[in-house]
């Protein structure tokens, strides 16, 4: 009975994704930095010049992203969130940046960011006002799209505050068309499903045709309870949302808060691992000018980033709950599998899970090659379905692995080993 349900769910989850928005962007989950979670709506540049929403903040982040290896690791977009504009549109009805905090204007800031080989993201809202009360784009979609294109902006985060929910679809689709009409490739990040879910199940076919990624659930906070709530929401809606992800369009569980104040190192590893499994945009919201080396190393971990950016472009999902563990798996290119084993117990010490309890472990027949990426890099070597490996996972931490199947006719290194194991198995058929 349970098995049958499991198989049906898997078939639903491997359905090919529908048509994506055809703007050539977000073929892999977007990587970059976004100000909101860390800097919020801090506009007090007199008292807090280093942390207020001003052109200086983005210029400094762009500088650090180039100097400290972020760009090289793949982080590309420097993104402005709410609270950048002036409270008034200009005489022609166009949005304008706050003149005191952005004296050079957005075009100059875009030029600066581009001179570093990075891209600039901006923020607006589908409704009457932004969430923080700045002018919204309702009634100005074409004007605002053209303004952003004239400024050479590369990404638009389009929020959903102050909008009648029944008009969300029309609004988001109109802005998508307006962006296309400018002729400039602008990555389009939506919040349409987040604002529609309280009323009805959103149409993910339409959303994928309209947006490059889309927020489904609450804003992330700098806390483990927030991260857990995102895991839980995602797992409990995976049959609906996972099939809609693929090259060109992704589910967005919100920003990475790694490097801030609220998560232990194990919890930071859990966020990084699960964001990679979920094929989520990797948009950090932290202070790159002052980040602890361990968080930096985690965010720049090339093996985790490779899982995130895997060219197959399939989103992973929760495949099992065993004791206090959740197993999440993501199919990767070349028949590889990424496996995250999250320990949800928040008392006691490290707990062990036998690797054979991972549903995807079946690809280890006859053999597989296992590499552990978190909590530390470890080549676990060639394994079989009978392997006795036990993963040790700290409370609220995650073990992250890649598993590469080795086929029977594999002629490489492991051939001898395969022959030896198969001989061994013949002798132990009762196992
Ligand atoms: C606009 O849409 C058309 C058709 O979907 C597509 O071919 C074109 O590349 C798009 N242009 C931009 C700038 O996104
Ligand atoms: C969802 O959107 C697609 C594409 O726009 C459309 O063809 C389909 O009819 C919609 N489904 C529902 C149930 O409204
Ligand atoms: C197993 O994976 C490791 C790490 O990627 C690699 O160095 C090793 O050669 C692989 N072994 C086999 C038998 O494929
Ligand atoms: C396979 O078995 C032979 C003979 O028992 C042994 O010499 C060899 O080292 C084994 N090879 C591997 C890869 O385990």
Could you describe the 3D structure shown?
This protein has 431 residues and is an alpha/beta fold. It has 2 domains: 17-308, TIM Barrel (Alpha-Beta Barrel); 317-425, Immunoglobulin-like (Sandwich). The protein contains 15 helices and 16 strands. The protein has helices spanning 2-13, 36-39, 55-67, 70-73, 105-115, 141-150, 168-182, 192-196, 204-210, 224-236, 238-241, 265-277, 293-299, 302-308, 415-427, and strands at 31-34, 77-79, 119-125, 155-159, 187-190, 213-215, 250-252, 282-284, 317-322, 325-331, 337-343, 351-354, 367-374, 378-383, 390-393, 398-406. An 8-stranded parallel β-sheet has the order 7-6-5-4-3-2-1-8. A 6-stranded antiparallel β-sheet has the order 9-10-11-16-13-14, covered by helices on one side. β13 and β14 (378-383) form a beta hairpin. α6 runs parallel beside α7 (168-182) and α12 (265-277) packs parallel to α13. The radius of gyration is 23 Å and the shape is globular. The model is unreliable at 1-8 and 412-431 (pLDDT under 50). The chain binds 2-acetamido-2-deoxy-beta-D-glucopyranose (4 copies). The site of one 2-acetamido-2-deoxy-beta-D-glucopyranose (NAG) has 3 residues, from α15.
Structural topology:
Blueprint: H1 2-13, E1 31-34, H2 36-39, H3 55-67, H4 70-73, E2 77-79, H5 105-115, E3 119-125, H6 141-150, E4 155-159, H7 168-182, E5 187-190, H8 192-196, H9 204-210, E6 213-215, H10 224-236, H11 238-241, E7 250-252, H12 265-277, E8 282-284, H13 293-299, H14 302-308, E9 317-322, E10 325-331, E11 337-343, E12 351-354, E13 367-374, E14 378-383, E15 390-393, E16 398-406, H15 415-427
Parallel strand pairs: 1-2, 1-8, 2-3, 3-4, 4-5, 5-6, 6-7
Antiparallel strand pairs: 9-10, 10-11, 11-16, 12-15, 13-14, 13-16
Helix pairs in contact: 3-5, 6-7, 12-13, 12-14
The structure holds 2-acetamido-2-deoxy-beta-D-glucopyranose (4 copies).
């Amino acid at each position: 009975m349970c098995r049958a349900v499991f198989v049906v769910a898997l078939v639903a989850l491997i359905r090919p994704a529908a048509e994506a928005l055809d703007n050539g962007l977000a073929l892999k989950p977007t990587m970059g930095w976004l100000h909101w979670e860390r800097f919020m709506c801090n506009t007090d540049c007199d008292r807090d010049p280093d942390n207020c929403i001003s052109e200086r903040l983005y210029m400094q982040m762009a500088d650090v992203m180039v100097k400290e290896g972020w760009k090289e690791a793949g982080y590309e977009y420097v993104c402005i969130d709410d609270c950048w504009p002036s409270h008034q549109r200009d005489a022609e009805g166009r949005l304008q940046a706050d003149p005191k905090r952005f004296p050079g204007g957005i075009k100059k800031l875009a030029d600066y960011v581009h001179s570093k080989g990075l891209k600039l993201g901006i923020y607006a809202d589908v409704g009457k006002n932004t969430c923080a009360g700045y002018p919204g784009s309702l009634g100005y979609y074409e004007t605002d799209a053209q303004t952003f294109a004239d400024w050479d902006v590369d990404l638009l985060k389009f929020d959903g505050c102050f909008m009648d929910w029944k008009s969300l679809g029309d609004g988001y689709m109109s802005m998508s068309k307006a962006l296309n009409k400018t002729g400039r490739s602008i990555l389009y990040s939506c919040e349409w499903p987040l604002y529609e879910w309280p009323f009805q199940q959103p149409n993910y076919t339409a959303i994928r045709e309209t947006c490059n990624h889309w927020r489904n659930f609450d804003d992330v906070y700098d806390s483990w309870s927030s991260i857990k709530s995102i895991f839980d929401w995602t797992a409990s809606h995976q049959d609906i949302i996972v099939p809609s992800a693929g090259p060109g369009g992704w589910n967005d569980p919100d920003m990475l808060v790694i490097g801030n104040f609220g998560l232990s190192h194990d919890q930071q590893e859990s966020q990084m691992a699960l964001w990679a499994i979920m094929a989520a945009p990797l948009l950090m919201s932290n202070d790159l000018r002052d980040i602890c080396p361990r968080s930096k190393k985690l965010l720049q971990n090339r093996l985790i980033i490779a899982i995130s950016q895997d060219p197959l472009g399939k989103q992973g999902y929760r495949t099992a709950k065993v004791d206090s563990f959740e197993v999440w798996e993501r199919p990767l290119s070349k028949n590889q599998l990424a496996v995250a084993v999250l320990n949800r117990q928040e008392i006691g010490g490290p707990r062990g899970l036998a690797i054979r309890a991972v549903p995807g472990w079946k690809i280890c027949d006859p053999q597989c090659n296992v590499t552990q990426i978190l909590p530390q890099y470890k080549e676990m070597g060639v394994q079989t379905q009978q392997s006795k490996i036990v993963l040790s996972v700290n409370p609220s931490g995650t073990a992250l692995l890649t598993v590469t199947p080795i086929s029977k006719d594999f002629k490489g290194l492991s051939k001898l080993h395969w022959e030896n194991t198969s001989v061994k198995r013949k002798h132990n058929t009762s196992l």
